[in-house]
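Quick one, probably user error.
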């Protein structure tokens, strides 16, 4: 079964802010970050159940090469990404906390 992924507005806002931060550090680094987001969402489309539950019903997937994770939950055949958080942010700020 293939799942659909949907980025919720707060997640899109966070991804945009992180993109701008990386791009301001070095041209092209923000684009690399977006490629990591794309790869992560493709992984979620294939098998979102493989990742750790943080606080039911939320799960998270660590981005490759970046200290961020996508926080999501599954509703039917849709994966709803609700946040993109840095690992050093307090877990109290994670979805479902």
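Nope, works fine. Designed sequence:
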């Amino acid at each position: 079964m293939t799942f659909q992924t949907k980025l919720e507005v707060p997640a899109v806002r966070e991804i945009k802010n992180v993109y701008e931060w990386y791009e301001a550090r070095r041209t092209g680094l923000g684009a690399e970050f977006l490629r990591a987001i794309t790869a992560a969402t493709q992984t979620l489309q294939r098998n979102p159940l493989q990742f750790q539950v943080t606080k039911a019903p939320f799960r998270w997937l660590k981005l490759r090469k970046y200290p961020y994770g996508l926080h999501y939950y599954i509703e039917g055949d849709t994966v709803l990404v609700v946040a993109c958080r840095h690992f050093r942010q307090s877990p109290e700020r994670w979805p479902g906390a």
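Residues 3 and 76 are 9 Å apart (CA to CA).
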